[in-house]
Structures are given as structure tokens and as C-alpha cells.
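Sample pair:
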Amino acid sequence: MSTTPAAARPPETTAERTAVARRAALASLIGTAIEWYDYFIFGTASVLVFGTLFFPSEDPLAGTLSAFAVFGVGFFARPVGGLVFGHIGDRLGRKGALVTTLMMMGVATFLMGLLPTTAQIGVLAPILLVLLRIVQGFGVGGEWGGAALVAVEYAPEGRRGAYGSAPQIGNAVGLVAATGVFGLVTLLPDEQLFSWGWRIPFLASIVLVLVGLFIRMRLTETPAFVAAQEAAEAAKADGATPVEQQVPLRTLLRTERRPLLIAMGLRLGEAIYGYILLTFVLTYAENYTDLDRSDVLWASCIAAGVAIGTYYGMGRLSDRIGRRPVYLIGAAVGAVMTWPIFLILDTNSVPLVIAMMIVAYAIGIGALYGVQPAMFSELFGTTTRYTGLSLAAQLPSMVVGVWPYLATSLLIATGGDPWPVVLITIVVLGIGAWCAIAARETHRSDLTGGHPGGAGAAATPTDRA
């Protein structure tokens, strides 16, 4: 007999299923909006104010480098959070893990807005900032995988790409909110910005957290998870011990290493390129062009607004033509645009910067990132899916976490010439493209199967074609 509480069981009628699927997509969107709002305001604050407030130095770039080092600390906490919450999500359910990660992220971000600075309490200030960044990273580590699963596992047949784009749309919403709020506070005189203005974006995050908690508390468990739990209960009743149900990580590493490595490569290609657009361009513009920092922030905000549509469009397109072709479109756009990004910044033309950001971000990242929830979910079996998605997204973060620091260091070493950063970005995009080609096409696979994208999975009609 199943131990799944009756109140937590998914609805069975088509109308109820559709309503819950939309609610699940909204819950995913809100959660990732908070995740990326937190990320963007921290990254932006690292460029604009943290170096001065928490790592004062005579050289502004040195302070920025120290702030980026703290920025990177959170990324090293992400894989641990992904492992912990992935295990919880695969064993006990998606809902509980998602509520916990949302609270951890939101509370840590809110407390950052209350921190005293180095001038007020000395070395304790950056220490507290590091500790909160670790808590934030730990929560974020388990957030995206669960948010993606809730959207994808509830999606109607043939709509996993479209519904799976919900957490990615949350990325764009988070960026719009973060850059919008920071764009406004940077209009303040420097004295007010550095004394209290920078705190507003962090404190405002509590509103998103409360909305997200209200929505997520109303979720039920997904049909795929309930089916897996019932199968495990049946196996126990027959006297079997389903080890993979007890230790998802063990099963993942034993039977699904290939899809895990492929997903990590896909994620790394997108992330390295994405952080060039979302963090590094601000550093470059701030120190090597005559562009006003608010102009770059608003360009990012406009591009993210366009990306709200392109994420959904790319997800929906992947339901028609497959996940791999859509990802390859994004990799091609990213490789072509990486060098022109800096040439356009050097023109100091705000209209050109806005146009560049729309193409490079809304289309390039739109294709690379928009397809990931459905594509990654289809690579793993139900009993390892949360762990697989979390590790695939967060293990590369250990590399990505040092990328802003490394990219800024390379920029300083070359006297402002971005060619090493461009070259590395193009190479990593190539790795992502190779992984896409190596991946099994899964857009017509059965998501409730054991290992839809594993090495032993049967070929789909699309694969044979």
C-alpha cells in the first residue's frame, strides 16, 4: 500500500491536471525568479559597491576582484546543496525540498541587506557576507533542479519543452527585477548609494519569497514521483529492496554517468557564455568604456524582457524539432556574438549595446538555456532525476564560480584586451555543442520510464531517424 498521503496525490481529471500543471509552472517560475534575482543583485553589487564597502582598497579593480571571490564562494556551495536536496527530492518528494530551498535563499539574501560594512564592524563584515553567500549557494544548489522537475513532470504530453521553459522565464524575470531595482538605486548620488541605497534590492527580495512560499505550499507531488513511490512500495511488498530508491546518487553514478556528463557539458557551455553577458560586460564597460553603468544595466533589462518570450518560444520549438537542434542554434549564436560584444561596447553607443544584448542574450541564451529543463529531465530516470538535474547544473558551477574572477584577472593582465576571455568562451561553447550532438534526442520519450536518456535506453523513433 502506498504511503503517499491522499491530500498530496495529484489530480486525475484532465481539467484538474491542466490547472495544477499551470500552477506548478508558476511555482517554478517564481522560485527561479528569486534565485536569479538573488544572483544578479549580488553580482551587480560585487561590481558596483561591495568592493568599496566590504573590501576597501586603493585600487577599485582589486576591491572588485575580492568581491568576485566571495561571489564565487556561493558556487562552491551549490553542488553540496544540489546533492543534499537532490537526495531529499528523489526520496521524500519535490515539494518539501523546494519549500526549504526557497526559504534558505530568501532569508540569506534579505539578511545581506542588513549587514554592517567593514567601516562599521571591521573584518567581521566580509566574514558575515561570506557565510550568508554560502547559505545562499547551498539553497540555490537544490532550487533549479526541483523547479525544473515540477514544471516538466506536470507538463501535458508533447508540451514538456514549453512548460519546462517556466523556470527559465524566471531567470529573465529575476534579471528584469534585479537590474530594474539596481538601475533605479544607481541613480542616487554615490553618498546615498553607498550608505543605504544598495540595501534596497536585497531587502526587497522578501516580497518575492513570501509570494513564492504561498504558491509552493499549495503544490502536490508530481505524477512521475508518485508513480515511482508506488512502484517502490510494490517492490517492498514483494520482498525486494530497491537500492536505487534508497540512494539516488549511487544509482546515478552506476547507470547514468554518460547523461550526467553530457548534461554538465551542456550546462557549462551556456553558463560561461551567459555570465559574460550578465556580469563581465558590466565590469568591462565600467572600467574600459565611457558607457554609464546604468545604461548597461538597462540594456540587460531590456534584453531579459525580450528573453521572457524567447525562452518560451525556444522551449516550444524544441517540442516540435527536438532539444538538440535548439541548443545548437544557441551555441552558434553565442560563438558568433562573443567577440562583437566587446567591439560594440567600445563604440559607447547605447542603441547598439541594447541591440547587441537582445541578439546575444535573448536569442543566444534563449536557445541554450530555454531547452535545458526538458532536455535534462529526459536524460534521467524518475528515481534519480532530481539528483541528476541538480548535479548537472551545479557541478559546473565550481568552474563558473571562478569565471568572473578569472575573466577580470585576464582583462587586467592584457590591459583591457578581452581576447583571452573571448577565446575561452568560444571553446567552452564548442564543448557544449559537442555534448548536444552526443546526446540522445529525447523530446518524444516517456518521462515516467526508468532511464529515458540512459545508456541502456531504447532508441526512440527520432533517434532511429
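Residues 139 and 394 are 11 Å apart (CA to CA).
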